[in-house]
Amino acid sequence: MSLIVNGNTVAGPLDPRVSLLDHLRETLHLTGTKKGCNQGACGACTVLVDGTRILSCLALAVQYDGRAITTIEGLAEAGTLHPLQAAFIEHDGFQCGYCTPGQICSAIGMAAEARRGVPSHVSDDLTATVTLTREEVQERMSGNLCRCGAYNGIVDAIRATVAAEPAA
Q1: Distances 86 to 14, 44, 94, 131, 152 between C-alpha atoms, Å
Q2: Can you state the angle between helices 100-115 and 151-160, rounded to 10 degrees?
Q3: Which residues contact 136 (CB under 8 A, 6 or more apart)?
Q4: Start and end residues for every CATH 1.10.150.120 domain found in the chain
Q5: CB–CB of 117/130 below 8 Å?
Q6: Domain 83-164, what architecture?
Q7: How distant, in Å, are the alpha carbons of 48, 89, 101 from that of 77?
Q8: How many CA atoms lie within 13 A of 1 on its CB side?
Q9: pTM of this prediction exceeds 0.85
Q10: Backbone angles phi, psi at 158, to 5 degrees
Q11: Regarding beta strands 2-5 and 68-70, do their DSSP bridges make them parallel or antiparallel, or are they unpaired?
């Protein structure tokens, strides 16, 4: 069993009961993904699997055999921050930074969902092209908690980058 983590093929855990979060943090030493509640309620552990956001604390690593997993460490390219990472800095989208990796991975996954036309609870027309208004972004990011209350900066960073991409 192997996983593709940030473009590199790595061995999966020997114990099939290991969560993806624990495998990333404890075995692969990718500590950017945070353990918050360990119950799927806070979003601090959000990573991307084949471009879709998941809560890694609720996922067994063995479920993702051969799948492409992207953590916060895999977003920067050649030492250059991902545009959303840079926007979080520019728009003060963090204070303590604990939730930031999960927020960023979730926002990238959320933007992909919107491009695919996936509606949210606040979408007016379920058949229309999704427009990532402030209200849409807030709703779609509601599963990621920030205990510092940096929500305005988070939403501003998202709207300045990934939400600015045309939805298809």
Answers
A1: 37, 19, 12, 23, 16
A2: 40
A3: 114, 120, 122, 123, 130
A4: 83-164
A5: yes
A6: Orthogonal Bundle (1.10)
A7: 16, 17, 16
A8: 11
A9: yes
A10: -65, -45
A11: parallel
Please say if the pLDDT value at position 165 is more than 90: no
Give the domain 2-74 fold. Ubiquitin-like (UB roll) (3.10.20)
Q: Is 96 exposed, middle or buried (0-12, 13-18, 19+ CB in 10 A)?
A: exposed
Residues of the chain with CATH 3.10.20.30: 2-74
Task: Estimate to the nearest angstrom the gap between the alpha carbon of 71 and the chain centroid.
Answer: 8
CA-CA-CA-CA torsion sign (134, 115, 45, 156):
negative
The DSSP code for 82 is P
Question: How does pLDDT run across 53-111, given as a tens digit for each residue?
Answer: 999 999 999 999 999 999 999 999 999 999 999 999 999 999 999 999 999 999 999 99
Distances (CA, A) of 138 to 23, 39, 103, 152: 30, 22, 12, 9
Residues 92, 138: Cα–Cα separation, whole Å:
16
pLDDT score for 51: 97
